[in-house]
Amino acid sequence: MHIAEGFLPPAHAVAWGVASAPFVVHGVRSLTREVREHPESTLLLGASGAFAFVLSALKIPSVTGSCSHPTGTGLGAILFRPPVMAVLGTITLLFQALLLAHGGLTTLGANVFSMAIVGPWAGYGIYRLLRRYDVSLMVAVFFAAFVADLSTYCVTSVQLALAFPDPGSGFLGALGKFGSIFAVTQIPLAVSEGLLTVLVMRLLVQSSKGELTRLGVFLTGRKTAAAAQTPSARTDAEEEANR
User: Fold this and answer.
1) What number of other Cβ atoms are within 10 A of residue 74's Cβ?
2) Are 156 and 1 in contact (CB under 8 A)?
3) Model pTM?
4) Taking the CB of residue 148, how many other CB atoms lie within 10 A of it?
5) Interhelix angle for 137-163 vs 10-37, to 10°?
6) How far is CA 28 from the centre of its chain?
7) Which helix (DSSP H) or strand (DSSP E) does residue 134 occupy?
């Protein structure tokens, strides 16, 4: 859903940049604290960023001035929370703009807002909601990645509709047109991203169970308090995640 370089009017580009800046600044503080307090998480942080970079680089032409693609932000949001993903997503978008001509510098703020801010928060929100009601880890992971992807495309549709309202039906008409065109490719991509994220999480459960436990990935609403107090409850949560 990267909006291409120079496609947004200057006022819109600046406004989205201003709206994104506080989230990114907060994310830098969160990321710095995570690395300082838990340097062992650096490898997993890098993997989360690389996952977002690779998936979001797989673009399919869609709406004029934009494209459809997976986002890869749901995984990082689950592991390290949305503020950290705002930074990783911004770095991803910046490198893609500079190295792949995917997106752009003038539209960086808009792309960060949709993919690195709204997407991770929406995905993490549905993940925490499902885990609160003891939905299994992998089902919650699927819907987190699915919602993070779809919410990004919804915000991009809003951004384009605000910049280019329909001459006859205005903002709502343009939003319907942009959204319907995106949906043709984006809904199947969101399903595919959800399934791929589940596969990656399964690998992480097998290879990095201790780190995932520290990050609270295995905790559910029923087990959160107990897991914080007893090792046996944490073990039960991990065993449930493996099922």
Assistant:
1) 36
2) yes
3) 0.88
4) 35
5) 150
6) 16
7) none
Range scoring the smallest mean pLDDT among 15-24, 63-72, 205-214 = 63-72
**What is residue 5's DSSP assignment?**
T
Note the Cα 57 to chain centre separation in Å. Answer: 14
- Which ranges of 38-136 would DSSP assign to H, the alpha helix? 42-56, 73-80, 82-99, 108-111, 119-132
pLDDT range class, residue 102, cuts 50, 70, 90:
confident
C-beta neighbour count of 193 within 10 angstroms: 27
Q: At residue 61, what are phi and psi to the nearest 5 degrees?
A: -55, 135
Which SS3 state, helix, strand or coil, does residue 217 take? Answer: coil
Closest CA to 106 of 120, 91, 87, 93: 93
- pLDDT value at 234 more than 60: no
Name the one residue in this structure whose structure tokens are 């399903």: 191
> Domains in the chain and their CATH numbers?
10-218 (1.10.1760.20)
- With contact defined as beta carbons under 8 Å apart, do 6 and 109 qualify? no
